[in-house]
Amino acid sequence: METDHGYVASFIGSEACERLNELLLGTRLKNDVKRMSPKKQTSRIEAFHSLLNYFAPKLTIFSYEGMTCRLLLAGLHYNENSNRDPALTKSGEQLYAIDFPRAKHGDYTLREIQSQVTFGYVNDLMEQAIHSLEENRNLRQEISGLVNVPPPVSSTYRKPDLEEALRRQSSRFALEESATTTDILQAGPK
Predict the structure, then answer these.
(1) Is residue 2 pLDDT above 60, yes or no?
(2) PANTHER family, alphabetically (predicted)?
(3) Under the phi-then-psi rule, with left for phi > 0, alpha for psi from -120 to 50, and beta for the rest, what region is 88?
(4) For residue 1, what pLDDT is reported?
């Protein structure tokens, strides 16, 4: 491939070259490229957090094992469905939806419609569970050995005597007389 080095030599030092240099090396373009980088975009992280809230709602209390299972299921679901193909019509055209976000004050945005969510990981998990049951009848013991349940946070607190609690409750100025919460925490469990 032949190049015209004469053209490049005449371009260097020209006003057009200086303007191109200003555009390419300017802070505005550098900042825009940083924002366009997938490492700086948070939409996938936000989608995963939304999925975590779906599988393990914050207002519902779960056991440690239950929460661990729900978080693992959310991860499996996200991994299977995070890169779905766009939905297509029968003729092969891509489907779009028109959204009217509040921030645009009446203007619209086009949004790609993705293909249906799949649940193939459920069948894989069921097959694995059945296979484990056929091989080993002590599955509950095997599973309980996989998860190390930490002790409850409340087990690190020292329960005060009833008299001490009543004395502390009776007067808000009695804090100097009785042990403070930090003293109780530093003392550890009885």
Answers:
(1) no
(2) SI:CH211-108C17.2-RELATED-RELATED (PTHR31751), SI:CH211-211K8.4-RELATED (PTHR31751:SF44)
(3) beta
(4) 43
